[in-house]
């Protein structure tokens, strides 16, 4: 069914839901996964033009996408990763087309109208402008529960 899934992640607790979903979908369909994070700070947007060094944030983002791809690979799923810089929705759409992905699977925070007006919604922009089908999964931040005390 799917051959290559683009998995945008944002390096936050919201990623857990979409990574788990894509892991199961890729196993079921035999697809490979390309994990992408789009760094959108000043350094990330201008690293090439201004010949800047990679910022600490970009290094952390690179390590994160590499770790997600390694976890998928360890689960038996062919996976690779990509760190991009610039406008997140534009970079995600461009990567999906350039890399030959036949599905973009991404988390959405589930904001409603007012928060989307204030913060915008990358998922919404991708969904409306992409030529590649988009699967949106409501991401919920992972909650760390304290250990239960021993009796």
What's the count of strands?
5
Question: What's the level 1 CATH class?
Answer: Alpha Beta
Structural category: alpha/beta
Largest sheet: 5 strands, parallel
CATH topology: Rossmann fold
Which characteristics define this entry?
151 residues; alpha/beta; Rossmann fold; 43% helix; globular
Polypeptide structure, described:
By secondary structure, the chain is an alpha/beta fold. It has a single domain, classed as Rossmann fold. It contains six helices and five strands, in the order E-H-E-H-H-E-H-E-H-H-E. It has helices at 15-29, 42-46, 56-74, 88-98, 113-119, 122-129, and strands spanning 4-8, 32-39, 79-85, 103-108, 134-138. A five-stranded parallel sheet has the order 3-2-1-4-5, with helices on both faces. Helix 1 (15-29) links the parallel strand 1 and strand 2 (32-39). The longest helix has 19 residues, at 56-74. The model has no long low-confidence stretch (mean pLDDT 83).
Task: Give a brief description.
Helix content is 43%, strand content 21%.
Break the fold down into its secondary structure elements and pairings.
Blueprint: E1 4-8, H1 15-29, E2 32-39, H2 42-46, H3 56-74, E3 79-85, H4 88-98, E4 103-108, H5 113-119, H6 122-129, E5 134-138
Parallel strand pairs: 1-2, 1-4, 2-3, 4-5
Helix pairs in contact: 4-6
């Amino acid at each position: 069914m799917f051959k290559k899934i683009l998995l945008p992640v944002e390096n936050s607790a919201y990623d857990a839901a979409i990574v788990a979903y894509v892991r199961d979908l890729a196993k079921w369909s035999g697809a490979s996964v390309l994990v992408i994070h789009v760094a959108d700070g000043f350094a990330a947007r201008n690293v090439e033009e201004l010949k800047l060094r990679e910022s600490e944030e970009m290094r952390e983002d690179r390590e994160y996408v590499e770790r997600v791809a390694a976890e998928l690979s360890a689960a038996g799923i062919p996976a690779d990763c990509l760190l991009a810089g610039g406008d997140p929705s534009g970079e995600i759409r461009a990567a999906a087309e350039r890399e030959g992905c036949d599905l973009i699977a991404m988390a959405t925070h589930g904001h409603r109208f007012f928060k989307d007006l204030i913060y915008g919604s990358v998922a919404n922009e991708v969904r409306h402008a992409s030529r590649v089908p988009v699967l949106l999964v409501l991401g919920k931040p992972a909650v760390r529960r304290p250990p239960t005390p021993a009796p």
